[in-house]
Amino acid sequence: MDYPVFAVTVDLVVLTVRDGGLHVLLVRRGLEPHLDRWALPGGFVHADEELAAAARRELAEETGLAEPGGHLEQLASYGAPDRDPRGRVVTIAYLALVPDLPIPTAGTDAAEAEWRPVGALGLAFDHDRILADGVERARSKLEYTPLAAAFCPPEFTIAALRQVYEAVWGESLDPRNFHRKATTTPGFVSPTGGTTEGEPGRPAQLFRRGDATLLNPPILRRAHGA
Amino acid sequence: MDYPVFAVTVDLVVLTVRDGGLHVLLVRRGLEPHLDRWALPGGFVHADEELAAAARRELAEETGLAEPGGHLEQLASYGAPDRDPRGRVVTIAYLALVPDLPIPTAGTDAAEAEWRPVGALGLAFDHDRILADGVERARSKLEYTPLAAAFCPPEFTIAALRQVYEAVWGESLDPRNFHRKATTTPGFVSPTGGTTEGEPGRPAQLFRRGDATLLNPPILRRAHGA
DNA sequence: AGCGGTTATCGTCAGTATGACGTGAAATGG
DNA sequence: CCATTTCACGTCATACTGACGATAACCGCT
């Protein structure tokens, strides 16, 4: 039996929350095809490498960080026959949610790297579609899982957590109701005992991630049709 | 630049509901490796073929049906370096939810095909893991989407729909509360006007799928830890 | 026809979750 | 010291859910 040969890449949708908005990590391509265009970070999977390991490796190479308390999961695979002019390339996209990082350092095959607000960006390949899928995945995961905390540093306030929801969903939430929901949902967050200092207003309690993997009951956004 | 070469396959987790239980379509392998062992149906992606098209083709080949009103979606990709002794093979798994079909016909490279209750089956390759992921995906999709109807014929009763939930979740639901929920959730089901005939008990109204793609509010199962 | 069994459908009611919003607490910066 | 800011907690009406009673409309049997 014989069969067609493929190249396999991983691409990363790395999301973070900066100044109240959802941002994605992009790199400017330093190689053909799509030279100089913006794209998601990614690269070829090595000959004897796990897919998830390849994703972690690319993440570390592009950001200079080895998983800073964030979250990494497989998103989906894309393999349209004409998606890459070099030949038949299937890419496994991964979704990473990370705290706001100092600034990404340019990697090996990327001339530059930077955070860009998500939206209609004209990215290389089919990366606009992959990004849209990643954003939608993040939006719905916030409803049913405690993953919002992956966008926060190890210790955070309820207000910071709420701002994550507001940035990712693009809607504002009532601070008092959100506080009640976050603190009473079992396993979502647990208090560290510390408080903020030096901020304007009353000091806020600090929390860390709880041990739940699923929020029950979930935190539902308003009807988001289709 | 050079890069490693891969083979790419699609594997299918085809689920249906039969006599009150969730069943998966398995084939007995007619080729090495894992000759004669049970496995998920699947095969190599052709040189110029979309991934989803390959999944549909394999589904048609294995079951003799071209999407009988069911549902097909990408599940996840699996690419451990040693998952296939023939070499580096990445598989894109697809999840199909279909109505109870007469009986699958054996395909080209499968000696036999049959429905088996899901559970701890000792499948070839990493197919136990893929199956488990598919079942979990189906369980959670029933909560937030109207996909339960994909397991039913075009017209069905509320009781049939409830039995889908009971089979997939493995728990029993109150018929009266489920009836209220299914009929009042906007876009879930719409009445055809017809009723069942010849069945024991009071005749039931017939429904077809509504036009919603998301259930709001969702139908949540009881706390399913982890 | 009449009757018991079966299933569908509708209704009630208490407990819980949610959204809207009022109010005091505890800090900061003039 | 006072105005401002943000946190934290409380109240209340409404909606949703789960438990379960009651009735409707068919079956098969005698």
From TrEMBL, chains A, B:
Family annotation (InterPro entries): NUDIX_hydrolase-like_dom_sf (IPR015797), NUDIX_hydrolase_CS (IPR020084), NUDIX_hydrolase_dom (IPR000086), WH-like_DNA-bd_sf (IPR036388), WH_DNA-bd_sf (IPR036390), WHD_NrtR (IPR054105)
Top-level taxon in the UniProt lineage: Bacteria
Presence of keyword Cell membrane: no
Database matches in SUPFAM superfamilies: Nudix, Winged helix' DNA-binding domain
Transmembrane segments annotated in the record for this chain: none
Region of interest (Disordered), ranges: 180-204
Domain Nudix hydrolase, first and last residues per copy: 3-137
Keywords: Hydrolase
Matching CDD domains: NUDIX_NadM_like (cd18873)
Pfam families: NUDIX, WHD_NrtR
MF-aspect GO terms: hydrolase activity
Name of the featured protein: 8-oxo-dGTP diphosphatase
Source lineage: Bacteria, Bacillati, Actinomycetota, Actinomycetes, Glycomycetales
